[in-house]
Amino acid sequence: MPQILVKLLAHLQADDLGMPELAALVAKDAGMTGKILTVANSSAYHRNGRQASLEQAMVALGTDMIKTLVISDSVFQTFNSFPNSGATDLRRFWKQSLGAAVLARELARRLAYAQPEEAYLAGLLHNVGRLALLATAPKEYALNFQARDDEALCAVEQRTLQITHAEAGAWLIERWQLDSFLADSVLYHHEPSARLEASPALVRIVRVAHVLSSHADDGAMVDEARALCGLAPDEPQALLDLAARQVEQTAIQLGIDLAGADDVPALPALAPLAAAPVDPVQQRLSEEVRNLVLVSEVGQAFARQQGESGLLDAMTRSARILFDFQNAAVLLENPTGQALVGAPTVNLQRLGEFAIPLASAGRAAGAVAEAALERRLAFVRRDGAGGRALGLPEEQLLRLLGCEALACVPLVAGARCLGVLVGGLQAWQLPACQKRERFLQAFGGQAGSALETALSERGHLRRQLAGVAEEYREASRRVVHEVNNPLSIIKNYLAILDGKLERQEPVGGELSILNEEIDRVGQLVGSLAEVAPRLDALGAVPTADVARVVDEVLRLFRTTGFAPANVELVATTADAGHVEGNPDILKQILVNLVKNAVEALGGGGGRIEIASRGHVNRERRLYLELVVSDNGPGLSREVLANLFSAVRSAKDGAHHGLGLSIVHGLVKKLNGHIDCRSGPSGTSFEILLPAHAGGAAPAALPARALGSV
What we know:
six-stranded mixed sheet; six-stranded antiparallel sheet; 27 helices; alpha+beta; 14 strands; 5 domains; Hypothetical protein af1432; globular
């Protein structure tokens, strides 16, 4: 893959890509720089004088157009240089690919898919396997390169080359090692829509884009594809009209000549003479069966693991060592018992999005689901040998694990199956693995027992937390009831005190009683603290009401004179909600930042604002974003370079010194993130703090995700 495209895809997943960073990336490719400048100064974007610099040109284009140009031009540069591509008319191929790309991106936006540019790339590359086959087998494939893109073509490819263009394209993209379903979307774009109903969104998007770009005249196929993405009957035609305009515009900007592309005939696939049968591959012998006494040692190793994640890692690691699995994954039964859900690992984060239904009306269970339901081993081969047809979940697992066969080991504890461990094998390893069924079954039993213990401990902890919470509620109700008595006394004596003061009578006795009752209120409220430490001991996470803490901080500065009269203090945090963490720590963070802001403004006055920007999704975790900003003179580069370092300072620069090092440490203590932006118009500190589970973003306003440009 071109390096500029590799870096762009990485930046699309990041949260900090601005126009300067994007310009620096594009500037590394001279051809791409020239393309951006040419398009920016074309009649479509030319406004007020020539855009001389790359960054100015990119600002004129906007990030969406830049990403489209970078992705499209990188793909065209790479695949137009394939062997034998120069002797082949590629106009029709690229027009269909551009159409599928535009359609996929528009579908992604309508389905609220998080990465529309990833969908654009998937649509652009969905037929790249045809170029791969042309490069690899020009003699055998030259006639069929321009053939109609349908199931008949795939059948001819399979007979003549033992691989379809969908498989070839997916294989090629897999070499890029992306943490994405992009390769799957290429592999399954010829699958019937009925098989893809439960597939990831990107797979469904590319299937619909393929149908609309290549089979728009087949009403039945369009209706099936339309239902796959929940489109209205009139939406496919609107999408096609939009794609036609955008394809023409993109081709002009990239300098690609598509004139006459529709005149290139698309004939039915032609099957040459049958190829000679392939000699069977000799199977290699596996190592001797490992000593079954290892099962006992495995059980002890599982018992030593701390936490569920550590146990799952130990399971997959041990399985790979004992049974020579190339890779392994664990699927656990969900709380309702209706599905197996993937347990993500460091190398397979997308496994967390994978699920296999355990019960489906009118459909036979696949091998993995059958292993869980019947609590017995199951083996699967990619080529379907043994009479077992592959379901889509099994195909995806084969691709996820990068193997030719699967061993499905049920994790059994007593009469219950808690999940399935799926091990990846090459085809030649499968016979030897099948001979070790008793060993595999015993391993699954040990793993299942250890997993049941871990789940039981987690349930016990939850019950303890629930008991403590109930005890706290009961104590709170008692305190509220009892506090009413001294409060009533205080209220009455205040009325008496008011009358005596008006008559100038002695009030010593009343004041004494008031003091006693106030002390009693304090003791009653303080009794709640006797329950709170037990919650901390069990791992409960305290929460902070952001608006309340901000109000306390601003009241402190306004009433104590910390902020001069010519400094305006503003808060816009009324609907901020709660964050996880000690409110005292949050208060200390804000006090430090506001104090630094006051010092930055100096004696000239100014404005300091504490604002909530709502919820942010970063690395699959929900955060609340708080910003403390001022309109002071900003920070120098030298100060910014060591902003959060614990350095000695004589306050030569605003917002600089030990205080910010402490702030950085406190934010990290709350499992948050802090960044600083500074310029001539002021400085702002942006803080991300984990949002409390009870205060998530409302459904009508979904949390924005960091990582898009």
